[in-house]
Specification:
The chain is α/β, with parallel strands linked by helices. 39% of the residues lie in helices and 9% in strands. It is built from twelve helices and eight strands. Strands 1-5-4-7-3-8 form a six-stranded mixed β-sheet, sandwiched between helices. The chain has a two-stranded antiparallel sheet with strand order 2-6. β4 and β5 (62-65) form a beta hairpin. α5 (219-232) crosses α8, α6 packs across α10 and α10 crosses α11. The longest helix is centred in the last third of the chain and has 18 residues, at 339-356. The structure holds zinc ion. Residues 30, 133, 143, 145 line the site of zinc ion.
């Protein structure tokens, strides 16, 4: 069976930003709920504040690239940074032609191979692979494309699996731009016209950080002890700041926090299956352990054992902000709206705080 990819055109969209962290492990299948030319024209306008990397035409013979693959398109809110978005033109209620469905499957398979992503259903983004916009849920804006029907979705999965199995070796070249210079030269998107209200929510907005109490509250010495414990384990300051931000987001350093006690426990709010795995391997029971440093040791064990591949990716982070986002996405798997961006900003705040208050670190060495 021959393997065909559509003819490629380029129509740049101004709606893109940098991937932070620069990890791609997800391909997202969409449909436009609109026609081919209209959708391209919408994604090409900065006022839409949405985009996709690729848009496929109705019979699967032509595809337009709108954002370089190594840049972030704005199509799935919290998942933008780690994903590539592929849109089929048309409407799910009208269905799609066999030509478009097959071309879509070929493109997804090609991208998975190209980026060394496993060919598997990624469900709600809990693991690498491919998935639908719908399956990503509220954290991706709560859309229903390309289908909400599990039987129809199963046919997409089967089609992608078959296309992947049918990929020629070596992988055929397809002239996708990873970062074309004409896009890199674009200016930042023009400001919104007065009174403009975006109709879609694919672009994450900044959201407020938790309000901190006074400097003499127990919160800051606990944060300092967590920071110091990570440093004592040989973790860099950059990565430790990301871990502190995630612990703050999970439990505000209240390791015996009330509420949710029956399903999430300890510094990283582990669920019971992880609690039991940690207990079996380390003897630390995070449901009852009073010393916060022991909770850090529990996370350290997980990262170096259960999450060893993820940990390697996290360690590549260049800034505290990147580290916090990578930890949030890859280790915590937090699903809340804007969670990665928020935790990145929280890590930036910890960095500024410890820079401004170095004595809180020296005054609170790790215990135990
Ligand atoms: Zn979509």
């Amino acid at each position: 069976m021959s393997f065909l990819l559509p003819t490629l055109r380029q129509t740049p969209s101004p709606n893109w930003s940098e991937r932070i962290p620069a990890i791609i492990d997800l391909v997202v299948i969409h449909d436009c709920e609109g026609d081919y030319n209209g959708s391209i024209s919408w994604f090409a306008q900065s006022k839409s504040q949405v985009s996709a990397h690729l848009v496929l035409n109705d019979d699967g013979t032509e595809c337009v690239q709108m954002v370089p693959l190594l840049k972030k398109a704005w199509h799935v809110v919290n998942f933008n940074s780690r994903s590539i978005g592929v849109e089929m033109s048309g409407f799910s209620t009208k269905g799609f032609t066999p030509g478009e469905l097959n071309a879509d499957a070929n493109i997804i398979a090609w991208l998975l191979k190209k980026f060394n992503i496993p060919c598997q259903d990624a469900f709600d983004g809990r693991r690498p692979g491919f998935t639908s916009h719908y399956a990503l849920g509220a954290a991706a804006g709560g859309h229903s494309d390309p289908t909400t029907n599990p039987i129809v979705w199963a046919s997409y999965v089967a089609r992608v699996m078959a296309a992947y199995a049918n990929l020629p070796n070596p992988l055929p070249t397809w002239a996708l731009d990873e970062a074309p210079p004409h896009l890199m030269a674009l200016k930042a998107p023009e400001p919104m016209p007065d009174g403009f209200v975006p109709t879609t929510d694919e672009r994450s907005d900044e959201i407020p950080l938790p309000v901190w109490g006074p400097l003499d509250s127990p919160f800051f010495p606990l944060a300092a002890r967590v920071m110091n414990k990570w440093l004592s384990l040989g973790v860099s300051r950059t990565i430790a700041l990301g871990l502190v931000a995630n612990a703050e987001a999970e439990c505000a350093f209240k390791i015996s926090a009330e509420g949710d006690r029956d399903r999430a426990f300890g510094l990283m709010q582990w669920w019971l299956n992880r609690v039991l795995a940690i207990l079996a391997a380390t003897g630390i029971d995070v449901r009852h352990e009073p010393l916060i440093e022991r909770h850090v040791e529990a996370a350290w064990w997980e990262l170096n054992n259960t999450y060893v591949q993820v940990w390697t990716q996290i360690l590549n982070s260049k800034t505290a902000n990147e580290a916090a986002q990578a930890i949030c996405i890859l280790y915590e798997g937090a699903g809340a709206e804007n969670a990665p961006i928020r935790r990145g900003a929280m890590a930036d705040r910890w960095q500024a705080f410890f820079d401004a208050n170095p004595t809180i670190l020296t005054a609170n060495p790790p215990q135990g």
